[in-house]
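Bumping with the actual sequence this time:
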Amino acid sequence: MALRRLSTTTLSPGGVAWLLLVASCGGDPAPAAGPDQMLDRSDAVVRYRIGGLDGPGPAFGERLLAAFDGAGLLHILDGTNHRTLVLDRSGGVIRSYGRQGRGPGELSSPAGFAVTRDGRQVVSDPGNGSLVTVDAEGTFAGSARVEEDAGFPTGRLVAMGDEVLAAPDPDVFSTAAVGDSLAWRLRAYDLGGPESRVWAEAWRAPEPPGTGEDLTLGGRTMRVRVAGLTHLRSFWPRPLLASVGNLVAVVDSTT
């Protein structure tokens, strides 16, 4: 299997460039397989620990997403407890945002998270059908509804100017929009309104017939698949997003 660069595009002067990568089984010869290398943990240094029922820090739920901002502060989405937290470099809580509910300052079913370099947070909340923006001071800065037929952004999101990028998550919510069954369509969602656009497409493995069940949440019907229950699959190839500086990379696996 070879990894090939398809394209590198600069969207605007000083703006965001994106790099699209796919794994291919043709073309360049595959490198020879080498022996597995085990990671040596003896040199690992624990900077700080957070969470735990008996520790001094906050107790977290099971649904966690995390990201660092440009200042090195750790931002955490604690979906179970309907909140976000910001921690300093020693693990101390600087501030928190959110509680359960459907109004400003409240989150219903947070399921996606992005953090900008300047410390703003974007939380996708399917329960409220919206994308919530929290400013760098921890104050509600606005929300935008997501259009009904565009799917819904979940998981680790990538902030890109006035948009966030999202890859469908096949293990929890099949967030693909109408007509997306033959490819994973990675979408950019506008933080100022309900608009979205297809930002890139990635290869999608065919699903077995009858996969998933309909779930209605916040007035929106989605196809939901619980891994290992509706059908067995040892590996589910999915597109991955990552960002470094002004570069956004997409990787999809075809094996």
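The tokens above came from a reply further down the thread. The CA atoms of residues 161 and 235 lie 33 Å apart.
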